[in-house]
Amino acid sequence: MDNLAHLVDGFGTVLSGYHLMLMVLGVMLGILVGVLPGLGAPNGVSLLLPLTFAMDPVSAIILLSCMYWGALFGGSTTSILFNIPGEPSSVATTFDGYPMARAGQAARALTLAFLSAGFGALAGVVVITLLSGWVAQFALRFSSPEFFAVYFLAFASFVGMGSGSPVKTVVSMMLGFAFATVGMDTVSGNLRLTFGLVDLIKGISFLVAVIGLFGIGELILTMEEGLRFDGIRARVGLRDVGRAMRELPRQWLALLRSVLVGCWMGITPGGPTAASFMSYGLARRFARRKEGFGKGEPAGIVSPEAADHSAGTCAILPMLALGVPGSATAAVMMGGLMIWGLTPGPMLFIDQPDFVWGLIASMYLGNVVAVALVLATVPVFSAILRIPFAVIGPVIVVVCFAGAYTVANSPFDMGLVLAFGIAGYVFKKLDYPIAPLVLAMVLGDKAEDAFRQSMIMSGGSLSVFWSNALVGSITTLGLVMLAWPLIGRVLGAARPGRLFRIGTN
Question: Cys-Cys crosslink for 94: which of 45, 79, 233, 377, Cβ 3.0 to 4.6 Å?
Fold first, then answer.
């Protein structure tokens, strides 16, 4: 009941013409970011972040979060009409969305995607509403060892639950830790990894790194692929929406399963991309018509979209309550909180209830606004992709470098953006994940401080991370997650059928 009372207060905070205007603006910018290749939600939010420095935190987070929702919807539009996923989490939508659109049912595919995405997002907000107070109260029991154990679990979960190579994930994370240590040590005051460069004393801004990794890096990759935007024209009318609303209840099992997968992967650091692929795989595994997948099966659109948006929404909860972002975009938002003078964690719910519950209330309204706007603007944003890439590409470059320069008005950051852009391109070519690097850059200092404080408390003994049941269970779970790829391989080799085959050879 307390959460509902706080939520009502949150609606009182955000229900104003100014905030509604920010929601519409954020969603429209987000759809544009999601549609344009070379951008994406993390890069779009990071580009917009410097413009929020003069805004109050509630208005700023409403603008950024609505841009996030819009970017997710924009990625679905290009996946269905152009077979080009605007977001990594929209890749699974192309499997059945584009075939359905090519079969002359583009409006049906789009409305199914948007309505199931809206359902998943709203389900994720309900989960945040119900759990946020409990998670915050639980986190108040944390001291330095518990916080380090949570950070360790977040890092280890990327290794254990990631879809890519565990070794590549660890390498990406180690590079993120290295970038996080550049500059002045906050404890000793010593300079680390500055190589005599005065500009590095202040450290490397994670915003500059994100703009380079996601923006310039994706753009270079797009240029290399010579992407041509030959898409399917579509217009969504009220009759199409009505038909999709009548069809969606028949997919109730896929919706429910996808929301559960998405909420779990959002709260843990699995993220929207892993959630969408996992949900699509489960839908195909348990479907009665497996042969329809890949040819325009409705469940193949509903499942990844609902999981994608519920995961993207639930990723906000650990960021607010524990200071552990559940996705790359949530990590950028967390950096914004710290820039605005807010400290993510359980005390945020006590010290800044207007901010927290204003954000949660805006998530209800923002997702409704996003569904309505994306349905209405499909022809507009699909037409943008028909503009030659020779025009779009330079515009994206200018936006990225201008956004990086506004972070600290430093010409040196322009060079860093280019360097990180090349690194992002190399990461993509070699199939190294970028999200662990961003997470390590954002949480590296906090994890290091928590570890040092824990060592001071225990006199240098690692046993402090098993000093009570809470920290011991979190640390042990982190170790299990870290070793999970190896454990899975051993268990797979030890299956009875596998042992029998080995014994007969």
Answer: 79
